[in-house]
User: Fold this.
Amino acid sequence: MKTLHNLHRPLGSTGLHVSPLGLGTVKIGRNQSVKYPSGFELPDDQQVRELLALAQDLGINLLDTAPAYGISEERLGPLLRGQRHQWVLCSKVGEEFADGESWFDFSAAHTRRSVERSLQRLQTDHLELVLVHSNGDDLTVLEDEVYPALQALKQEGLIGGFGFSGKTVAGGLKALEDGDCAMVTWNLREQTERPVLDFALSHNKGILVKKALASGHICLEGEDPLSAGFELVFSHPAVNSAIIGTINPAHLRQNVETVARILSQQR
Ligand SMILES: NC(=O)c1ccc[n+]([C@@H]2O[C@H](COP(=O)([O-])OP(=O)(O)OC[C@H]3O[C@@H](n4cnc5c(N)ncnc54)[C@H](OP(=O)(O)O)[C@@H]3O)[C@@H](O)[C@H]2O)c1
Assistant:
């Protein structure tokens, strides 16, 4: 079985080294108002424990979570006890989700409260990365207090780096001027954020990909959608890691096998 252990790479100039696949954790915390091809039950603790162990065995060291992913952070805290130092943890600020609805707050006070709450929920004193969970109005969000607040938290050492998960090219480019990393949508169906990837490459900034499999929709079409999907994702050299939101161990193995093969061929 191929693994990703020898394929870790720097995340821009953050000093972090990440596996080319990360584990997205929406589906361990939330199954309401999501856009996956089919409905699902949240996995139980034992299933998540086994998924995390498998991810580690396969060489994955990056976990992506957020306050807006329902109970994802709360569940990860206890489950990561004893293995926290083996993970690069990325969480977010700005979006809140409850009773099936999102709302947003990009103020300095909320940003600090949110990071402190993430630390508490994740049972840690440091987050390697925090991203702004944009509402899509990216440039307006970047004019708010959230970025300076994250800069202050970085200076205090509570977070290692910060960046932006947005929806627009203008927002992604602006966010990378002062931030360490952008999380972009980049898949067979959606490549409009290419200029953000180009900028990241020329300025040594980190790029994490969300929805690399178009939230699972591309898996339902074509002859070998995984190979086609991951070949596209890793065709751009700015991509440091694709965060895949699977709760299925067989899919996790398939994804790792496919990415390990593609990246080995690129070497
Ligand atoms: N605004 C933001 O910041 C933002 C927005 C969206 C996502 N994200 C992050 O990015 C992560 C990934 O995004 P995403 O979950 O929307 O999309 P994704 O990773 O493109 O797709 C996940 C979906 O694909 C399915 N899948 C995965 N591997 C598969 C395989 N080998 N064969 C068939 N189906 C497969 C999963 O189902 P199974 O569980 O059955 O494998 C799941 O339903 C999220 O978990 C989250 O961490 C961030």
The mean pLDDT is 97. Residues 249-266 form the longest helix (18 residues). The two ends are 19 Å apart (CA to CA).
